[in-house]
Amino acid sequence: MYAARALLRSRLAPPSTVAKPCKSPTSACYQVFVRHTSTSTQDGSQSKTPALDDLLGAEQVGKAKTLSREVGRLSRELDAVYSRQRGLNRVLKGPLTVRRVARAREWGGRVSVRDGRVFVENKALSGEAEREIPKIWLRDNCQCGGCVHETTRQRLLDTFSIPSDISIKSHSLNTNNVLSIEWSDGHTSEFTSQFLTSTVKPDHDKAIIRQGLKNVSLFDASIASSPPRHTYTDERPTAIHTILSKIRQHGFCYIDNTPHSTPTETETLLRRISFIRETHYGAFYDFTADLASQDTAYTNIALEAHTDTTYFSDPAGLQAFHLLSHTEGSGGASLLVDGFKVAADLQVADPQAYHVLATVNVHAHASGNDGISIQPYRGFPVLEHDPATGALLRVRWNTADRAGVEMPIETVGTWYEAARKFDALLKEKRNEYWEQLTPGRVLIFDNWRVLHGRSAFTGKRRICGGYVNRDDWISRFKMGEFGREGVLGALAEG
Ligand SMILES: [Fe+2]
Ligand SMILES: [Zn+2]
């Protein structure tokens, strides 16, 4: 689109912007350039640029101005067309939405080979009886021990040694629905029909394993009566998966009965999930309110609901808090708000505002520490969706750390209006879940979904906790949920 616009602009650009020297100018064209831009005096110095009217005549200048206005108008029309195109693409892919159900449909389509071409039927797709699987893909995804390392599942095959005109010399389909292919390069491959039919899975179904999806239970203030929890004393190998599974479903989980005389057990718990993420604040932390890290989180003032580390391109995945002690004072209740639930509320209340928060990029920064200003490599929307499925993936909301809103300045009011509506919903009493944390109860929540805050407090609070990367915890969850074979079996799905 930019090429078309540039062409349009170059066609319609007024003469004053066209007159520039050639790369290897002759004296004639150089003189033309000089005449357009400056006037030499007798002593060789240059006077100020004369008015365009004097150089081109009022009529030409009038034409240039008209054309310039026309360029502006057409450019705005192009913007509108591209915006409609993006909207149309979105409709074709499926609407932006908060997805709650992760349920795959049945496959079992028929695999057939005709005229040296492989076709897959998929009963789950209406109106799309068959699709052809390109031979290059099949050969590249041969699953034999010579093409894929049996332990690491890394590709051993040199993809680009496959002839581009690779063809099927012979094939057979046995009764177990395994397709055996002898290729023109002499290699033999075997594919199960399950593997072949997975190539035509809709993106929504592929996303279940790819993103580790689980049915989502949105929460509001009423979750106070039975919040998701587990016990630290569960030492079974499945304990961590049970915790992660609850977080995947509800957005958070308490781990009760955690020893609290020192932070050691809390750190052990986090390390049982995965690596603790290091940031400019350190890795596992243990602090009292002393403003040592130059961030409002380290004071005793109230904090509105927010997500952490919006200033990273990849914000922290999980966050853990454990109040080890609170002496000589009171207050400091913890606030949790389900960002997905409030996004769903906004979509119902004001779809246009939802769309604005889903499409306008916002920048952020962390600059409190000496010599540090961390910013993401690009802006991200408040409500970030999976481009493949349109499902909400991540909520980023931190007013304190917000930097620029990526919109032409004259239109930025639109974002503020949408953000104000989201903010009002976040602060509705029915959406705020307040809980007074006590020593022994670790809170772990999904920082890509759940916003957190706290009320002001007095006295001394000792808190420990840390972050876990999103990829680390979701990968851990997926291995527990689908098993190694399930996860690795879906690698080729894309
Ligand atoms: Fe925070
Ligand atoms: Zn092979």
TrEMBL record:
Pathway: Amine and polyamine biosynthesis; carnitine biosynthesis. Residues 240-466 form the TauD/TfdA-like domain. InterPro entries: AlphaKG_dependent_hydroxylases, GBBH-like_N, GBBH-like_N_sf, TauD-like_sf, TauD/TfdA-like, Trimethyllysine_dOase. GO terms for molecular function: iron ion binding; trimethyllysine dioxygenase activity. Its EC number is 1.14.11.8. It is an enzyme of class 1 (oxidoreductase). Coiled coil: none annotated. Keywords: Carnitine biosynthesis, Dioxygenase, Iron, Metal-binding, Oxidoreductase. Residues 129-196 form the Gamma-butyrobetaine hydroxylase-like N-terminal domain. It catalyses: N(6),N(6),N(6)-trimethyl-L-lysine + 2-oxoglutarate + O2 = (3S)-3-hydroxy-N(6),N(6),N(6)-trimethyl-L-lysine + succinate + CO2. The keyword Iron applies. Its cofactor is L-ascorbate; Fe(2+). One of its GO terms (cellular component) is mitochondrion. One of its GO terms (biological process) is carnitine biosynthetic process. Belongs to the gamma-BBH/TMLD family. Converts trimethyllysine (TML) into hydroxytrimethyllysine (HTML). This is Trimethyllysine dioxygenase. It comes from Dothidotthia symphoricarpi CBS 119687.
